[in-house]
Design a protein that fits this description.
The protein has 422 residues and is of the alpha+beta class. The chain contains 13 helices and 18 strands. The protein folds into two domains: 97 residues, Serine-tRNA synthetase, tRNA binding domain (Helix Hairpins), CATH 1.10.287.40; 306 residues, Bira Bifunctional Protein, Domain 2 (BirA Bifunctional Protein, domain 2), CATH 3.30.930.10. The protein is 40% helix and 21% strand. The protein binds one RNA strand of 88 nucleotides through helix 3 and helix 4.
Length: 422
RNA sequence: GGAGCAGUGGCAGAGUGGUUGAUUGCGACGGUCUUGAAAACCGUUGUGCCGUAAGGCACCGGGGGUUCGAAUCCCUCCUGCUCCGCCA
């Protein structure tokens, strides 16, 4: 959410942000509603002042005087009710519009329509050249009996799967390795609730807008999270933190659930786009300071790169363009890992910088020691590893001519073997 | 799921319809005293909104209602606790 005063001061800036980010919001209407609300609130306040003044004297009045005063107060009350009605009409409109205003992208974010215009920053690692015809991860996984899509679909429909034997173990190995990597860096591990209230979804800016992407438990009015970012960031929702608590760094390993509505026919093959997966996620809550925010943005990007480097996977980092940014993101680095079967670098990580956008929505603040003011925090998050998506490059890049798969060095302690064979 | 109790300022804890934004204690901060510290004493100590300011308004878990007037009465939701039932 954006400070209404900023919108008031520079409406053009937010119209432009909506345009380049491809979000639709009527800024003019928002300001209209706000102006009317302000006027009405002032009127109601003036009436309240008058009512309080008279009301205070009532108990001391003589009977005759009192009757007169009470009659007068009734009139005020009627006026007040008239204004209140209109306010109650406008407030929900105001809230709704406010939730839709996008955060302008940072100055160093490329302007572009969609993900094809994201700008590559750098590449790391060598792409493997095969001296045999490589298989894709489904061919490999099916032959090795470690991936079973058919039975996943039998039980749960399309985009569902089983991981079996070494497949399941490999999945847990990358997660465990990544979690421990973050733990060693001082990130506090949290085991989080995966069913959350609408408040948490709104606070992290998944709602409004992302309702179709989430599974919702209608009976209980709870939502299955699509990422641990939601509970991790909303952990301190509504709180006023001490400055010493910042930066708060959290890491979680959790299942993630996505309906993938509107993605019908897209990425239907394999384990790339699926309804349920597991992810290690990192979240930083820091002071309201641009430099601090940038520092932690670089840090969380670096943390994830270290994991990919440890796994010896080739990847590239891209600066995500305006058209591909979320409503609240100031800036986003995606890490795309090389996937042989897709003959491309594909998104495996997404490092977002939100400024105070999420904090405002969830009323997350800290007490500034100097000014004694309560200030909105900054929030950031990044994937540490998401599996089974990352199993695609692992299986495909580590495959051998005989159909076996070498286990990446850092995962061997978790697997207890260095090769997956039939 | 059934029955009951509770939710007040950083914490503890008063307040059951009228100058109560809220007694008091602790904590914290400032000051006096002291070589220093402790003790003692004095003072300050919630948040949001409107306003250049003076000042005003709102908030006693959330929302709604009764009333001229509500922390105090009513409804509803949320949260916590106790007992019973069920259960990985």
């Amino acid at each position: 959410m954006i400070d209404i005063k900023l919108i008031e001061a520079q409406p053009a800036r937010f119209k432009e942000a909506a345009r380049t980010k491809k979000f639709d919001v009527d800024i003019d209407r928002l300001l209209e509603v706000y102006d009317e609300l302000k006027t009405l609130r002032q009127k109601v306040q003036d009436i309240a002042t008058e009512k309080n003044r008279i009301g205070k004297a009532v108990p001391k009045m003589a009977e005759q005087q009192r009757k007169q005063a009470i009659a007068e107060l009734s009139e005020f009350k009627e006026q007040e009710q008239k204004y209140d009605e209109r306010i109650k009409e406008l407030e929900p409109q105001f809230e709704e519009l406010m939730l839709l205003v996008p955060q302008p992208a940072g100055d160093d974010v490329p302007v572009g329509e969609d993900d094809t215009e994201n700008v590559e920053i750098r590449r790391e690692g060598q792409i493997r050249k095969f001296d045999f015809k490589p298989k894709d991860h489904i061919e490999l996984g099916t032959a090795l009996d470690i991936i079973d899509v058919e039975r996943g679909v039998k039980l749960s429909g399309t985009r569902n799967y089983f991981l079996k034997g070494d497949g399941a173990l490999l999945h847990w190995a990358v997660l465990r390795f990544s979690l421990e990597h973050m733990k060693a860096k001082g990130y506090v591990p949290l085991m989080v609730p995966l069913l959350v209230r609408d408040e948490a979804m709104r606070g992290t800016a998944y709602y409004p807008g992302g309702e179709d992407q989430a599974y919702r438990m209608e009976k209980d009015e709870l939502n299955l999270v699509g990422t641990a970012e939601v509970p991790l960031t909303a952990y301190h929702m509504g709180e006023i933190l001490q400055k010493e608590q910042l930066p708060a760094k959290y890491v979680s390993m959790s299942s993630c659930f996505r309906r993938e509505a509107g993605a019908a026919g897209k990425d239907t093959y394999g384990l790339y786009r699926i309804h349920q997966f597991d992810k290690v996620e990192q979240v930083v809550v820091c002071e309201n300071d641009e430099q601090e925010s940038d520092k932690y943005h670089a840090e969380i990007l670096h943390n994830s790169e270290e994991v990919l480097q440890a796994l010896e996977l080739p990847y590239r980092v891209v600066n995500v363009c305006t058209g591909d940014l979320g409503r609240g993101q100031i800036k986003k680095f995606d890490i795309e890992t090389w996937m042989p079967s897709r003959e491309n670098y594909c998104e495996t990580h997404s490092a977002s910088k939100f400024g105070e956008f999420q904090s405002r929505r969830m009323n997350l603040r800290y007490k500034d020691t100097e000014s004694k003011k309560n200030i909105f925090c900054h929030t950031l998050n990044n994937t540490v590893i998401a599996s089974p998506r990352v199993l695609i490059p692992i299986l495909e890049l580590y495959q051998n001519a005989d159909g076996s798969v070498t286990v990446p060095k850092v995962l061997r302690p978790y697997m207890g073997k260095d090769r997956i064979t039939r």
